[in-house]
Amino acid sequence: MRRLLLVAMLLAAPLFVRAQQPSPHAWSPYADVILTNGSVTTVDKDFTIAQALAIKDGRLIVVGTNAEALATRGPATKVVDLHGRTVIPGLQDSHIHFLPLGEEVTREADFTYAKSAADIITGVEQVVAKVHPKPGDWIRGSKWDQYKYPQMVTRWELDKVAPDNPMWLSRTYRGIAVNTAVFRLMGIDDAKKETWPAWWLKDPADFTPEDRIYREQRTITFADGHTEALMVPAGVFLGVRGAQLLTVHPKPYTFEEDVESVRDGAKEMLSLGVTSIVDPASRMGYNMQVYQEASNRGWVPFRISAVYEGIFTTQTPDWIREHLAGIHVNNLGNHFLRWRGTKFYADGGAGTRSSWISEPFVNWQTIEGKPNTGLPVMRDTATREAQYRAALAYGWDLHTHATGDRAMRQVVDLYMKFLDEFTAAHPGQPLPRWSVIHAYLPIEPKTMVLPDMVRYHIIAVTNAVFQWQQGFGFVTNLGEARMARTQPFRTYLHSGVLMASGSDYSVTTHNPWMGFYALLTRRDQTTGKVYGPDETVGIDDALRSYTINGAYLTYEEQFKGSLEAGKVADLVVLDLPDVKALQENPELCFQMRDKVLLTMVEGQVRYRKQGYAF
Ligand SMILES: [Zn+2]
After folding, report:
1. How far is the C-alpha of 475 from the C-alpha of 490, rounded, in Å?
2. What CATH number is associated with residue 501?
3. From the CA of 242, how far away is ligand 1's center (Å)?
4. How far does the centroid of ligand 1 lie from the alpha carbon of residue 368, in Å?
5. Which candidate, 40, 31, 32, places its Cα nearest to that of 82?
6. Which among 314, 328, 163 has a CA at the least distance from the CA of 235?
């Protein structure tokens, strides 16, 4: 009805306008662009599939049939026949540590898809071919995961690719692989015992179970000609302390390089159909300074909401209060760059056996020797409450990293208390939109937070792609039964928890379609096994979690997140007959990089695949 009314108004308008403003630059009542003959996946309440849409001044003015859209056609309107292709709303990655992405895609190796040491070598060879490093230049890469390879890569294999370039290859988290050139920079010579650090042949005493130095037996020839077979470091260091043994590093990217990274990273995200991101950690506001500078240069072509992160873990409430005093709150800026809440940490993660959980990690008998139930950042709930209140005093929204079920219980209990106070003080007002970030284990018997999340509208910002990309590491630590309940997508969405999807790049790939793959299949990349098949969702729910639910998280659901008349024209044209194709054959997710034909933000074409005429 509203749609027809709008069309009627537009058709009625021209005479009046022409009479008032005869100039050729006068306001026109007609659409700027009309897309026809498509499978327009609106992601409205009923998940309606429309045929066409019309855009004017960056907004959708019609979403409906060809005839309805074409009724807004004027002499200068561009009409594009989609030939049956699919349109979806622009995607939102609701949790991405976006800043290094541009640097990574232009000059680093990405081991997301590597499934063997040979694949890692190939990745390094490719980056060498791309950046042509001079001798001494660092080669960087990231996202290897030793769980995936029968045999981890060694420094001697890496040396064959680029012996004169130190290599710094990061694990998905907490771990570094290096080549021999790095040891040389540290002054270590394999053939000179006097250069060996204390840890060369023996682990330091302060290593935790997550720390590990990979060693291999090598026959070393010393200066005097004698040889010894010794277990020497193979170049791979796991854990925080393990990695800290490396005393040389590539130099950090500069502010200028970071600003350029925003430009290049945005281009990359747009090419995958992402039009909005939430950066969950602005590192004391640093990222926001970078975004602001990029924005000043016109390099922010999509929507960034940055969560202010003061790295709030164990600081005193006074410190937090003082720190936040000079900084202002939510909704500054515009719809392309804005602050959105602050972030706390409640625990660690499943991959590093540091989630705060009620049942110990499996295999503790062999790994820790005593039951390991993880690490709360703040076991004392009264202190945590005071920390939160310091942020609430300035009006910040709360977002908390909590992976384990006990961590989730602590966070949700405190949120409930604050939200009750909010309701008492502001009766009838809608609740603020606070989230639990990661939110792996909401339905554990001892802690069960799910019904409370529903009741208090607490948002779960999940990272589906972990189920695929780090599935094997997770199941090794959580066990199969608990893995099947980890990130219970269907339970979340069907119980009424608003679940928004994000990648957690740079821990994972930034490619949202791998998140879709995980939502649709829950298949582990390493073994191909499915954990929790009844917790998969359909493409409709998967899309909601990447669009309208994300818009809700950032208080923008009236403005974006679905294709409905009145909302902004943030949209993606896909080379698919309809979105159901992805559900019928989830393996298509691996081809989506080629199937994104066009990405539009507020009616502007921000990405167009080469060869696609538009
Ligand atoms: Zn994160």
Report:
1. 19
2. 3.20.20.140
3. 22
4. 26
5. 40
6. 163
pLDDT of 352: 85
Distance, in Å, from the CA atom of 203 to the CA atom of 258, rounded to the nearest integer, reads 36
482 contacts: CB under 8 Å, gap ≥ 6: 359, 441, 444
SS percent in the chain: helix, strand, coil, step 5: 35, 20, 45
**pLDDT above 90 (res 308):** no
The pair phi, psi for residue 90, each rounded to 5°, is -55, 140
Contact (Cβ atoms closer than 8 angstroms) between residue 154 and residue 235: yes
258 — pLDDT class (breaks 50, 70, 90):
very high
Identity of the residue numbered 90? G
Q: Is residue 216 assigned to a domain?
A: yes
- Domain with 447 in it: 310-563
Q: How far is the CA of 25 from the centre of ligand 1 (A)?
A: 47
Confidence of residue 28 (pLDDT cuts 50, 70, 90): confident
Whole-number pLDDT of residue 1? 37
| Beta strands 337-345; 49-50: pairing state | unpaired
Q: Are residues 224 and 347 in the same domain?
A: no
425 CA → ligand 1 middle, Å: 33
* CA 46/CA 59 separation, integer angstroms: 21
Q: Are residues 169 and 318 in the same domain?
A: no
Backbone angles phi, psi at 178, to 5 degrees: -130, 165
Nearest to 169, CA basis, from 116, 112, 108, 118: 108
pLDDT in tens, 191-228: 999 999 999 999 999 998 889 999 999 999 998 899 99
Q: How far is the CA of 207 from the centre of ligand 1 (A)?
A: 25
